[in-house]
Amino acid sequence: MQAATPSRRQPALSAYAMFVFAFIYLPVVVLIAYSFNRDGVGGFPPRHFTLHWYGQLFGDSAIWDAVLNSLLVAAGSVALALTLGLLAALALDRASFPGKALFRRLVLLPLILPGIITGLSLLMFAVFVNAPLNLLTVFFGHGTALISVATTELFAGLQKLDRAQEEASLDLGATPWQTFWRITLPNLKLSLIAAGLLIFTLSMDEIAVTFFLIGRDNTLPMEIWGRLRQGMTPEINAISTLIFVVSVALISIWYRLRTRTLRDVS
Amino acid sequence: MYSRAYKSLVSLPPLLWVGIFLLLPYALMFVHSFWMVRDGFIVHHWNLDNYAALFTKPVYLQVLLRTMRIAASVTLCSLLLGYPLAYYLSFHAGTRKELLYQLVIVPLWVSYLVRGYAWKTILGSTGVLNGFLQYAHITHAPVGFLLYSPFAVVLMLTHIYTPFVFLPIYAALETIPRPLLEASQDLGATPGKTFRRIILPLSMPGLLAGATFAFVLSLGDFLAPLLVGGASGTMIANVVQSLFGAAYDWPLGAAVSVCILMLTLALLFFTETFEKRWSFK
């Protein structure tokens, strides 16, 4: 395929590219290596392999409570953001209403603006309506902010959809409701799963917005954040390693789905 | 083909939700910036004192300038790392292209906190880098200036945003028609000239998008300074955070936030128009 010109060997460029890859991956490799180090986080080289920190991690109930909280918030956010994002994508694709251009931009704001601004605005809103800060406010915050991701992903999916199928369904006497459930939604399945995975991953990791909306119960990133103030222990390396492994797994699934959606179209 | 009922059914819920839970909160932020604190309470006394304070007290301008310097450094470093990487992948990676592309994508979605923490363990005075330097007999005492400095913030943010910068540049490079390069070469241009006259201009929209990404995202970051920045690495968003926290001056904090927001939107608007002009050339 590479018939084009500049494919001559360029050792300097290749070396530089390898250097950039090393820069991107080195911190993660270090992090994982030291999660197995008996003598703790610092020092060089890491010696004395141990699984002690993982053992300590599995017995640490505060961490697992936080994991559960994060899972709850993420699951809720996926449901909320997907529902409203799907409706928003349908509205942008098919309806016209006053302020449509403004709405399109407004939905995307949480994706573009610094998390601190969205987080503080939502905090002010919570104070305004007298809502106590707890996991529910975090869920509302994540769900609302991530409508942006759902809308972009699903709008892209809708654009590639074959309208003829829906027209046929309506012509053959199906109600719009039936058409939606039997034609539109099944055709969007891959986009929905991909968007859901992405929202889930982003919510599990979210910290800038969560920072201002959290009550007494911590999400996982906030629990880790709190511990970092007391100092670094390899237990944090261990949980970070697990987070890394799980995110890589979820992202590879997301990536596969994405390429499959693209391939289906072309 | 869609009925009125269908259209209202799909547009009303997201409109209402976004109006109440997004537009209203942002509006509250805006409104707060014109209020004030008296005796520890926020009073709805409309005034412009908050904005006046921003421009008259030098500390805010100082931190804002430092923030822009850090954001500019992050942007530059990310471009210097991201552009050659994208160029290599697009033109020289051959059959390994797809694999390498995925290798860049993966860290993009791996926890911000995990990556920030990793840098903390590397740069600290008892950290991995210092351990390595002493092990290799390059230094004999721990080097203290690595962590808790603007340098650490730039390093951490560059690490996070390099893949972000890579993506749009790579996408732009991939759309360059390859025959153009052959033509340029056949007509006697050196590889350097081909790059300057063809590849660089055609990848400009991607480069701009990536640069804006890195700059805007670093501009509003408050976690990196808290994690690795120390006192000398404080950024504008940290000022906002402390005004909303310990200092309890929400109106002033809101005014700073509105400034960050305006700056962000202005930048995005600017690059959007600039990008359009480039892509029409």
CATH class of the largest domain in chain A: Mainly Alpha
Question: How confident overall, as mean pLDDT of chain A?
Answer: 88
Assembly status: heterodimer
Question: Can you tell me the overall shape of chain B?
Answer: globular
Kindly report the spatial arrangement of strands forming the biggest sheet of chain B.
1-2
Q: Beta-strand percentage of chain B?
A: under 5%
What's the Cα radius of gyration of chain A? 23 Å
Counting DSSP E segments of at least 2 residues, the number of strands of chain B comes to 2
Largest interface: A-B, 86 and 92 residues
Q: How many helical elements of chain A?
A: 12
The number of helical runs of chain B is 13
CATH architecture of chain B: Orthogonal Bundle
Count of all domains of chain B: 1
User: Can you identify the CATH superfamily of chain B?
Assistant: MetI-like
Query: What is the CA-atom radius of gyration of chain B, in angstroms?
Result: 24 Å
Q: Specify the structural class of chain A.
A: mainly alpha
Question: Could you please describe the fold and organization of this structure?
Answer:
The complex is a heterodimer of chains A (266) and B (281). Chain A folds into two domains: 42 residues; 206 residues, MetI-like fold, CATH 1.10.3720. Chain A has 266 residues and is an all-alpha fold. The N terminus of chain A is likely disordered. Chain A is built from twelve helices and no strands. With 281 residues, chain B is mainly alpha-helical. The mean pLDDT of chain B is 89. The longest helix of chain B has 34 residues. Chain B has one domain: MetI-like fold. The interface between A and B is large, with 86 and 92 residues.
